[in-house]
């Protein structure tokens, strides 16, 4: 069951955590500069079917505007400024494509947790496209990324297209039927919000042979506790602090 397991214990959330604008190449550079060779980022499809790094379906928070991402082409998104909101040092930092992020990670030997983040109504196509492209780009000797998603349908589509690339199901709270869901997806891991996880749940998931990954852990004491519970890894925004303590 446990494909490509274990994976890195501490992963830079959205590229560079709190130190750089999320889901940009600047964030990936920042994570790397802090010694991170493991990164999580969010991938969504643009109107032309090209996957780009983006967390929110609607513009407005990290990129100015109010359009929905699926209504914009990748060419339109790639000239938008995803850095100004964060600070003057990042003015003009563009929205990257998944391909650009993938190449950066390959070049610098950075392991990827690719969160498939479909816009509503685009679950299956996003899973299929991201999986197909990832499979096409993966080098023979390259460690595959770990796909994760809150969307069961997106992960199922990824499984259909690229079954050998491992999958983890993201949940905000462990559902009662977690094991059945993981079995249906032939997933290797469950990813959950650490705030809702109990030690009993952690033990059950580990006893069943699955990886257990948490988001988003920014406190060192909590990180110690989670590792004691058997949690395999987590992503963090505090790449300046947590990485130094645990890597
Ligand atoms: O993959 C873990 C975490 O990134 C999930 O939450 O909202 O930051 O994508 P979010
Ligand atoms: Mg994410």
UniProtKB/TrEMBL annotation:
A Pfam family assignment: GDPD
All residue ranges annotated as the GP-PDE domain in the record: 8-246
Superkingdom of origin: Bacteria
Cross-referenced NCBIfam families: PRK09454.1
PANTHER family referenced in this protein's UniProt entry, alphabetically: GLYCEROPHOSPHODIESTER PHOSPHODIESTERASE, CYTOPLASMIC, GLYCEROPHOSPHORYL DIESTER PHOSPHODIESTERASE
Entry protein name: Glycerophosphodiester phosphodiesterase
């Amino acid at each position: 069951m446990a494909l490509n397991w274990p994976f890195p214990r501490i992963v830079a959330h959205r590229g560079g955590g709190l130190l750089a604008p999320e889901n940009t190449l600047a964030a990936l550079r920042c994570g790397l500069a802090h010694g991170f060779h493991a990164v999580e980022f969010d991938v969504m499809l643009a109107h032309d079917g090209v996957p780009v790094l983006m967390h929110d379906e609607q513009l407005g928070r990290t990129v100015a505007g109010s359009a929905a991402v699926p209504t914009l082409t990748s060419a339109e998104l790639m000239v938008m400024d995803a850095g100004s909101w964060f600070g003057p040092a990042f003015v003009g930092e563009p929205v990257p494509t998944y391909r650009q992020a993938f190449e950066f990670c390959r070049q610098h030997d950075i392991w990827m947790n690719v969160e498939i983040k479909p816009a509503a109504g685009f679950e299956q196509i996003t899973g299929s496209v991201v999986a197909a492209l990832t499979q096409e780009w993966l080098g023979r000797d390259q460690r595959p990324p770990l796909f994760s998603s809150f969307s069961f349908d997106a992960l199922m589509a990824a499984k259909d297209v690229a079954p050998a690339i491992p999958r983890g199901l993201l949940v905000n709270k462990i559902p009662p039927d977690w094991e059945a869901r993981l079995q249906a997806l032939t997933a290797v891991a469950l990813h959950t919000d650490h705030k809702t996880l109990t030690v009993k749940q952690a033990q059950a998931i580990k006893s069943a042979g699955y990886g257990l990954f948490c988001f988003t852990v920014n406190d060192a004491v909590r990180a110690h506790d989670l590792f004691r519970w058997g949690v395999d890894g987590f992503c963090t925004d505090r790449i300046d602090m947590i990485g130094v303590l645990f890597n």
